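[job 0412] stage=fold_complex status=start
inputs:
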Amino acid sequence: MLGTMRMLECQRTTNEWARFFGSAHDQGVRWLHCSDEYESFPLLCQCLAELRATRPGVTFRFVVKLANPGFDDSRFDESRFVARLSSYSEHLGTDHFDLVQWMWRTKDGGDAHRVSRFLAESARLDQSFSTSVARGLVGQVLCFPYSPTFAHAALTLPSINGLVIYRNVLETEYESALDDCMRLGKHALAIRPFAAGKALASAEATPETLLRYSFSHPAISGIIVGTSSLKHLSELLAASAQAE
Ligand SMILES: NC(=O)c1ccc[n+]([C@@H]2O[C@H](COP(=O)([O-])OP(=O)(O)OC[C@H]3O[C@@H](n4cnc5c(N)ncnc54)[C@H](OP(=O)(O)O)[C@@H]3O)[C@@H](O)[C@H]2O)c1
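[job 0412] stage=fold_complex status=done
writing structure:
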């Protein structure tokens, strides 16, 4: 799965980025990870619109990030959840999201408070998530937990199919949550296998060994990696075929 957070770090025109995504698709990439909170989001939407006009066969499946409650809210709001999905539909040109990366954020009270608020509202959340799936808006809801404790709590909800977590040689704190995923028949996506490039600094590390590490728990069903280079992308695809 190709991450789109760092697009603005690379000096490219919309047209050049559209060609990059078209070539990534030609190489076999079918999933994009994105967020309307990323500054790159408008550029991504322009690229996808350009591809719809010039290469209609190039289509992607999405992992979209959606926080609810956000930092400024006190509780989960179903109407805002649905409105954010509609907004994603409008901007990304699709009315179905295979994977929603859902987050519970809060400004106050720390993690214990966040977990207890989530548990108190979990029946309502479960209902909302199940309804979105039943209506065909969403394939699965995965939780980006911010903490292992929240991960264990989130996995108790039937409508949460798994997790999105950081997993690389420098970030390893979700092992027991991944075991929980396996026990419950759920799965997880690993974000930033190279620790945003830091893990590649070590002399022994190669993209293949690092991807192999990120894939190394059986609950991991996919990896979200960032690249702005078609050469790196083909190395990543070859390495991930070896590492899976
Ligand atoms: N909380 C969240 O939801 C969250 C947080 C962080 C990231 N993310 C998502 O995860 C995606 C990936 O994260 P990330 O980009 O920060 O970290 P990453 O995937 O661990 O690392 C990306 C870095 O690795 C380099 N790279 C990629 N393939 C390479 C290769 N074959 N050889 C050498 N270098 C290579 C890239 O440089 P080149 O561009 O030169 O290839 C880039 O500098 C993001 O785009 C975003 O979509 C989500």
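[job 0412] summary: Residues 3-6, 33, 65, 144, 191-197, 200, 207, 224-229, 232, 235-236 surround NAP (CB under 6 Å).
[job 0412] exit 0
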